[in-house]
Fold these 3 entries.
Entry 1:
Amino acid sequence: MNIVKRDIIIGLLFIGGIWSFISGQFIFSTVLFAVAAIFSNIAMRTQLKG
């Protein structure tokens, strides 16, 4: 996956989490933040490995 595509996916998940939090959907926003953090961590590890 391209680096730009990974950044876009992580950004959209984060923005979706913020929007869900503002809307009052706290459980859904927590899930989106968690998925963004895990996906970001996996993306960084694969990028460092080469």
Note: DSSP finds two helices and no strands in the chain.
Entry 2:
Amino acid sequence: MSATAILAALLRRLAPAPVVLDLGLPAAGIFPRLHVARCGVADAAALPAAERALLVGLRDPLRGLPPFGFDRAADAALLAGAPAAWGEEPGEGRDRLVWLPGPPPAALAPLWQDGAWALLRSGPPGSWPGPERGRIMLLAGSTAAVERFDLMLPIDRLAPVLEALHAAAQALVATGGRWQLGKRVVSARLASLTALLEAPAALPPPLVIPAAALLQDGPPGLEDGALPLAGVARRRLLLGGLPPGPVRITLRLRGVGSVAPVLFLGGLRQTASLLPDPDGTARLGAAVTLEGTAAQVLGLALPQGAAPPGLGLLGVEVAW
């Protein structure tokens, strides 16, 4: 179980779970372990041209928004704390968390003024660009591969959030396996939480990503929870950060008929099999080996005009 998977499992168990802005792209962030308010980049101008061209063409299927960093108006609304920009209902009042691959850029300062948390990989100590913060050092992963992250949050939230994360870790431990678990309070501004897996009880359950959570390069809009695929020759879908190694990727489809999409991963065609389900849907699955640390991109292709009018993608499953 990777450190990212453990952190996502802890955050999901908070009540209520924070809403997340994942700025890990184009490398792997915490999506799809956590469905997020938006994925994006902290500094779009610094991206290589090819990566920028790929990301700027992706869209949120519900709102039609590109990743954070590519739409000034939408980005400004999120930085201003607008609930709709964060995917919240008015008055919901959930904590907001920003996943960062490195030190926070100055442009994100309004978020820290508004009390947002930041979760970043541990690096050399430096000054925080905003109000003084508390720090919870998170040690996660396996006993053979420990990773450290820093959760930066308002000082008055450190103690209750630490207790909530520790309770979440105890609930995770209760699901099985052998763990090293611990917490330590160093001061009112510094604490640590350890959640290391010594031996898993079993393979993790499949990761399920609904169509509504998949950034894609087609027109926005869902039909009864499915992403329409009829009338398009190709579609690219952002799967996000997945650990390297062998997995089985399965697309849940409806209205397939006699023509199934051709599946690509990282631009390479994959051998896939189509299996019908009793409820009239179907599963298109392929055994693949994931490599590297970049966010994974799944491609679908259909012969022009061959897709049945009701063809739609309900979601993607990843099984280990």
Note: The chain is about 15% helix and 35% strand.
Entry 3:
Amino acid sequence: MSAELISWPLWWSSPLALLGAGLLLAQMLGLVLESRGLPRLYGAVIAGLALGVSGLGLIDTAVATQFQELFNAATALVLFEVGRKMDLAWLWRSRRQGASLLLACVLRGAVACALLVLCGLGWSEAGFMAAMLIAASPIIYASMVSDADASGVTVFAGANFVGLGNVMALLVLVPTLAWLKARDGGALTGYGAELMQQLGRLGGGLAIALLCYGLYALATRLSRARARMRPGMLLAALLMDLGLCSVSAASALLSLLLMGVLLRNAEKRDNVFQAELRTGQDIGYALLFMMSSSLVQLQQLLHWQALGVALLLFAARIAATRVALAPALAWSRSKKNALALSMGSLVSFGALMVDNSMTGYPGLSEGANQIMAALLALNVLVAPALTWYGLRLAGEHHEEDGHD
């Protein structure tokens, strides 16, 4: 065997080999954690930290960029599932419950914006960051629900909140991002042009979703596809949607969420999409967790002032969510507490844009970037545990089945 083949650097010079090794390590660690009653997907977090920029440095932004389309595809499946679990009819009929979830989104954004301004940030920066702090992470919530095999009224409400929060976050992000970009360019008169550009992204995502869903519906009806054949055709439509959004700079988040909403609320036929792709989704969750944690710089948590603000924001968002849930009559006090905790995660700018290589916006000041970095680090390290604990507190974890 040649020296080149047994050379250590050669084995680790392949990004695909690194990805495979990381996933293998993540799943091994996950099984160990699961055997001790802990969330299995923290194995992916540990693997990412060990192999990423805070550990051995084998997986960094350059490696992640090479697999960006793969990560976007995994994110697309998560967003589609979030949309598929949004019950628009229930949100309308439930009145108090639906209004409480909507109020929670508003309060989370308002409280975050006020705290950031009090901490010395400008209104444009505070508004931009507060827009992201409205939403809970679809990836963290969906993966923890899958990990716990949880189901029940809290999980149902949480799924609707995640979808509602991400849509609202995106809608609020449009004007705040336009304002931040216009201010950064030194020409406030350019705000209108920036706003129209961002609105065009939303409109493009909406049009692409309607087109791809229409093609899926037409294809399945013309071919008279049976239920077991439709998941493959739906997956093809999702890939078309993601690809068209990518090349047109349309909003992939809105488009993919809408695809899921249409499947649940417009499609009357039975579908078996979830059952067919459960294994693939679990691998996708592990991949996304591992890559997110591999890019976390733990030294950002050593900026004590930024860390203090980040912890304050985490606590304030949970408290605001709990206050907003008070008028709802259908949930008990413990269910409301559990729902507020399980919504403690947040999304990054890159996740809202369905581009995991984007971890922030360059127009932010140094202080704002430090707070955002601390928030994202805490999101990877702490938010999954909060979500997992919230599901257990609700009594909807699989270990609690039959005792609620």
Note: Residues 1-8, 355-359, 399-404 have pLDDT under 50 and may be disordered.
